[in-house]
Write a structure and sequence with these properties.
Oligomer: single chain
Radius of gyration: 13 Å
Largest sheet: none
Distance between the termini: 14 Å
Structural class: mainly alpha
Number of helices: 4
């Protein structure tokens, strides 16, 4: 796994999709970093930094959060990036946590936990 923040996020996303997605995921869900659009790369790096900063400012106490709390944090940060890069996103792109499919909620929690474990 790369040490570049955006790649760490993307690699965790791909691993989570492969673990949790029911059936065969869409090719875009598991496209390698090099094939990821620039806005998604920027967003992945931004959300990584938001999670990393949250972990650091909490002195690692984020370990006490539930998986749902961790996943919600990632999802909310991602939605803000969607709004930053896409003027009128599809409703599914900015869906609330409770409206996300289970595989996506689990993947978001996995991403948070991967970032928690990543060395600075």
């Amino acid at each position: 796994m790369s040490s570049e923040p955006g790649r760490i996020f993307r690699d965790a996303w791909i691993a989570g999709v492969k673990r949790h997605y029911p059936g065969e995921p869409k090719p875009g869900y598991v496209a390698p970093w090099e094939e990821t659009p620039d806005w998604e790369r920027q967003s992945a790096a931004a959300v990584y930094e938001q999670v990393r900063t949250f972990v650091e400012l909490s002195d690692g106490q984020t370990a006490k959060l539930t998986r749902e709390q961790k996943g919600r944090f990632v999802a909310t940060c991602w939605i803000a990036q969607i709004y930053k890069h896409i003027p009128e996103p599809k409703p599914a792109y900015v869906a609330d946590w409770s409206d996300l499919p289970e595989w996506q909620r689990e993947t978001d929690a996995d991403i948070f936990e991967q970032i928690e474990r990543s060395p600075r």
